[in-house]
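Example 3.2
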Amino acid sequence: MVENFGGSVLYVVLFVIQLLGLVFYCYLILFNPKKIIDDYQVGDAAIAPIRLVGSFILPIVLIGIYLLFTTIEGAWIYFVFGLMTSIYQLLYDVCSRMGIVDKGYTVVNKTQDSVLSIVFVIINIVLINGLQDKIFL
């Protein structure tokens, strides 16, 4: 497994951290959406969109598990997609906090979401930079 990540335990650990974050998010969406509804004050009518988002997260988790145990060679799209998603989440968080977007709506911004977005942007940048010889074939 370590050989798959350029022989670096650091890259395996970062990949697993990213994957565990996605697994946790997937779990919340698919098996405990009430927590998301309550935490973000979106109301019970938001269950369908929450489940819809979950339908996108589950395949990403499954692909990540597959990559972990097989090979990451040529899997640049997985890593770039993760980076782009994290950047978008961070930008949305910052813009909604500053009142640039969605100022007419109730948007719950949590500090932990901002920190997690920053962490995942950094993890993805480190993974893409460090594994570029394997993922960009």
